[in-house]
Design brief:
Length: 225
């Protein structure tokens, strides 16, 4: 059971991915996270990607496709995978299909999280994560219970993404809006797309996703419970 999340920055893809990883024993390939890690570690890939990420632009397809190929070959055939942030272009979607085909895997569900553009800037600008355990917070919608202390690990350092500024968010949103319909059409032709209203409460979004996955054949074979 492999799943692709499509949605603009701030739609909640990361939050819902994290939940599925924790609850359903799925593995996430979150390309933004992988790239940020590479930038931080100053790897060759990180050096190639940095200028694009800083500008809120897409990293070239070839770089992304090589990266995802490397990641996928390290994952066992039976493992359910969530693609969070990939593919972002039709060329990436085609390459992913070809790659999965070679590995005897398929995409089983594509979930589009639909959110109002106006809500996104507010959602993104206030977000931060705990430096130690990566728990997510928001200045307005999700503060830690004790100010400045992570609810989960007690950490006191919080980080913000350097591309979460209003100017860069505008770029990232416009890139998303340019590429979105091509990818959605690509997967619609394969009858894989379900839309979920990303403006709902997180729990409701999770419930809607759960239903889609169960109807789409998630058997819980790999679930932790
Ligand atoms: P994200 O964390 O998904 O918002 O991604 C952060 C940044 O990483 C994006 O603004 C892009 O510069 C880059 N990136 C992540 N995934 C991709 C992708 N599939 N294709 C091209 N660039 C990507």
């Amino acid at each position: 059971m492999n799943l692709v999340f499509i949605g603009p920055p701030g739609a909640g893809k990361g939050t819902q991915t994290k939940r599925l990883v924790e609850e359903k024993n799925m593995v996430a390939l979150a390309t933004g996270d992988i790239l940020r890690q590479n930038v931080q570690n100053e790897t060759e890939l990180g050096k190639q990607a940095k200028e694009y990420m800083d500008a809120g632009k897409l990293v070239p397809d070839e770089v992304m496709i090589n990266m995802i190929e490397g990641e996928l070959t390290n994952i066992s055939a039976e493992q359910a995978v969530i693609f969070d942030g990939f593919p972002r272009t039709v060329a990436q979607a085609e390459a992913l299909d070809a790659l999965l085909n070679r590995l005897n895997k398929t995409i089983d569900n594509v979930i589009e999280l639909v959110v109002d553009d106006e809500a996104l800037v507010e959602r993104i600008v206030g977000r931060s994560t705990c430096k130690t355990c990566q728990a997510s917070y928001h200045d307005k919608f999700s503060l830690p219970k004790v100010a400045g202390v992570c609810d989960y690990c007690g950490g006191t350092e919080f980080v913000r993404r350097s591309d979460d500024t209003p100017e860069k968010i505008k770029n990232r949103l416009s890139v998303y809006n340019q590429e979105k319909s091509g990818i959605i059409d690509y997967y619609r032709k394969q009858d894989l797309v379900s839309e979920v209203d990303g403006m709902l409460e997180q729990e409701e979004v999770a419930g809607a996703i759960e239903k889609i996955l169960v109807d789409g054949g998630l058997t819980y074979k790999y679930a932790k419970v």
